[in-house]
Amino acid sequence: MRLHHLLFLVGLFLFASCDSRTEAEKIVDRAIAAHGGDKYENSKIEFDFRNIHYTIFKTENNFEYIREFSDSTGNVVDMLNNEGFVRTVNGAKIDTLSEEWIGKYSRSVNSVAYFAFLPFGLNDASVFKSSMGETEINGEKYDLIRVTFAEEGGGDDFDDVFLYWIGKEDSMIDFIAYSYHTDGGGVRMREVSMVNEVGGIRFQNYLNLKPADETMPVEKMQELYEAGELSLLSEINLENIKVESLNN
């Protein structure tokens, strides 16, 4: 009897250990699986965004984001990875960039990669997730997840706050809202406008919406959206998407 009791307790402990993730983490896990799962970590992704070509690779521990475009200086290649940021023009490394411009370019590259890879990055070690309960938009039910970032490892934008509306039925992210503090700060809400599935990964285009008062708390964005008080600022469209599997 004592042996059976001991085995029972060990079983309970193992079950509790396996089920130790918070509700917010479980919801995000399901969203990552629904959007592409482990294909994110085993693929090189390319796309065009606003006439700039991006190549993105990311795992839990390593990343490399590249953008390429041409301007009056020639062919520009920006690379951001675990080692830092490098810009080359016509193949020559630019060593005269100030810390300010390195920060601006890095944030710009990282922002595009972050949104393109969502929700995969939400399991990074620097991400803190909490559940804000259930809500409803346009007759659809959602789990509302709040995301903040650790200062260490959270990048220059660690004090940004994100909200994600994740479908109760399909675990898809249909809406995103966020507050940011760089470049003057503000708040935005994004609504999915189109979906492209390439290589088993779901890529989403968005309508980028803004309120008249950009000092509004990000938690008010759903209320403003439902009241029709957000205006269209821009469209976030990824084009010419290619996914190359790295499992070959």
From TrEMBL:
Superkingdom to which the source organism belongs: Bacteria
InterPro entries assigned to the protein according to its UniProt record, in alphabetical order: DUF6503
One Pfam family from the record: DUF6503
Protein name as catalogued: Deoxyribose-phosphate aldolase
Source organism of this protein record: Algoriphagus ratkowskyi
Phylogenetic lineage: Bacteria, Pseudomonadati, Bacteroidota, Cytophagia, Cytophagales
